[in-house]
Amino acid sequence: MVDWSKCDAVERLPGKLSGQWVVRGTRIGVDAVLDNAADGYAPSELTGMFPGLREEDAAQIIAFAGQAANADTA
Known about the structure:
Layout: E1 10-11, E2 22-23, H1 30-38, H2 43-49, H3 55-73
Antiparallel strand pairs: 1-2
């Protein structure tokens, strides 16, 4: 399980998206970013799919999830 509290690109607030982790300053769910990245979309493509998403935030979220997954398997 990913500890998103250590990722600067995301936040979780009770009134936003039912308390799910979202991209900081948006209502874009982290799961939506990761699901689309898993489908092969690059961070630059995700910005066109999710208005308000910055490419650097998408890249950081994807990298953070990858590092967490690698740490879980080590």
